[in-house]
Amino acid sequence: FEFDSKAAEKDDDVYHFVAFVPFKGRVYELDGLKAGPIDLGPYTDDWINVVRPLLQTRIAKHAATEITFNLMAVVGDKSMAYKKQLDLIANDGGKEMQVLGLKEKIRSEEEKRANYKVENIRRKHNYLPLIMEMLKILSEKGMLLPLTLKAKEKIAKKETLKKEPKP
Questions:
Q1: Over the range 62-79, which residues count as b (16 or more CB within 10 Å of their CB) and which as e?
Q2: What is the DSSP letter of 47?
Q3: By the 8 A CB rule, do 24 and 37 touch?
Q4: 29 neighbors 20 (Cβ within 8 angstroms)
Q5: What pLDDT sits at residue 4?
Q6: pLDDT in tens, 110-162
Q7: What is the 8-class DSSP label of residue 11?
Q8: What is d(CA 90, CA 96) in angstroms, rounded to the nearest whole number?
Q9: What is the mean pLDDT of residues 71-80?
Q10: If we measure between CA atoms, which residue out of 32, 36, 37 comes closest to residue 14?
Q11: What is the CA radius of gyration of the chain?
Q12: What is each CA distance from 17 to 29, 40, 72, in whole angstroms?
């Protein structure tokens, strides 16, 4: 296997990231393709109100079926926020249900974090040696070509079904 490290051409998909950051009462756009931060103006209560119209305008430029961007948010750690809330109400009497609810939320966040850790290990693992060994074994047993042909037939059948008009 060889990895091709060519430069992007005119028709290639090029990805970059844009971030919106509230800082000292103003909202800035950080775009990796621009020379520096872009000051989007001041905000008073919620900085998202400054960014929302800009995002809506950019999204509206694309067709509804087109997926050319992804929107993500960097947020605080929920379990830390729940633990702070728990510390604040733990000593108040009569708030047992709230305490139980917060403990359940903390447990749920810890479970999510453990699952993320396993997913990240799987995502980072190099499966190429396993795949190559499996292909080698299938080839030695004379099974690789028939399986490849069967997969091609399935793909062709799916393509045919997609092209047929639906009643």
A1: eeeeeeeeeeeeeeeeeb
A2: T
A3: no
A4: yes
A5: 52
A6: 999 999 999 999 989 899 999 999 999 999 999 999 999 999 999 999 998 88
A7: T
A8: 8
A9: 83
A10: 32
A11: 26
A12: 11, 17, 10
